[in-house]
């Protein structure tokens, strides 16, 4: 009987640890769903805030071991299919972003909030420009750059608010701070 308690305890501990490890992926999936513009609002897609980039950035900095390159690829592909952009565009952007963030994540995680926000600003400018360039090449014409700039400004301005929520989730799930 004692061994069955130990086996059940180990099983439940395994399930709890596995679920805890999936929190970053689940939050990014939810943020992708929030980021995809509703189809019934005209011109909303051009100014929609990409909350999924905030989630990818945050979790890549603070829990990089839980966001693998393949996971970033799948999340980007999920975004591509929901947003109706060329298939593979955000998958590539997410993978390259995650790889680059993996190089600098140790420095960003120890930085103060303004440095982190500046890092996010550079991250979003890079991803927005890459997305704009890839879409322009795909469609064979330059797309509206003003809406991309507005979208970038809104996403960067939303970073502190979304980060507060992600910090709260992180503290609840990982018992930090």
Which SSEs are present, and which pair or pack?
Blueprint lengths: L1 H20 L1 H13 L15 H12 L6 H15 L5 H21 L3 H27 L5 H30 L3
Helix pairs in contact: 2-3, 2-4, 3-5, 3-7, 4-5, 5-6, 6-7
Provide key terms for this protein.
177 residues; mainly alpha; 7 helices; 78% helix
Q: How far apart are the termini?
A: 38 Å
Instruction: Specify the number of helices.
Output: 7
**What is the gyration radius calculated from CA atoms?**
18 Å
Using DSSP, what is the number of strands?
A: 0
Give the helix level as a range of percent.
Answer: over 70%
| Class by alpha and beta content | mainly alpha
Can you tell me the residue ranges where pLDDT is under 50 for at least 5 consecutive residues? none
3D shape: elongated
Mean pLDDT: 86
Order of helices and strands: HHHHHHH
Summarize the main sheet. Answer: none
Instruction: Provide the β-strand percentage band.
Output: under 5%
Molecular structure report:
- With 177 residues, the chain is mainly alpha-helical.
- 78% of the residues lie in helices and 0% in strands.
- The chain has 7 helices and no strands.
- Helix 3 packs across helix 5.
- The protein is elongated.
- The protein starts with a helix and ends with a helix.
- The mean pLDDT is 86.
Quick gist of this model?
The chain is mainly alpha-helical and 177 residues long. It contains 7 helices and no strands.
């Amino acid at each position: 009987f004692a061994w069955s308690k130990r086996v059940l305890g180990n099983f439940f501990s395994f399930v709890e640890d596995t679920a805890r490890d999936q929190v970053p992926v689940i939050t990014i999936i939810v943020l992708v769903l929030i980021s995809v513009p509703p189809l019934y609002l005209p011109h909303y897609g051009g100014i929609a805030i990409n909350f999924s980039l905030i989630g990818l950035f945050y979790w890549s900095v603070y829990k990089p071991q839980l966001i693998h390159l393949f996971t970033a690829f799948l999340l980007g592909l999920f975004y591509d299919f929901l947003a109706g952009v060329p298939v593979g565009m955000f998958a590539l952007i997410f993978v390259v972003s995650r790889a680059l963030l993996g190089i600098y994540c140790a420095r960003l995680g120890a930085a103060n909030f303004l440095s982190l926000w500046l890092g996010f600003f550079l991250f979003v400018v890079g991803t927005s420009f890459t997305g704009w360039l890839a879409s322009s090449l795909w469609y064979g014409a330059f797309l509206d750059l003003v809406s991309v700039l507005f979208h970038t400004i809104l996403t960067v301005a939303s970073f502190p608010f979304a980060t507060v929520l992600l910090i709260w989730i992180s503290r609840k799930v990982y018992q930090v701070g």
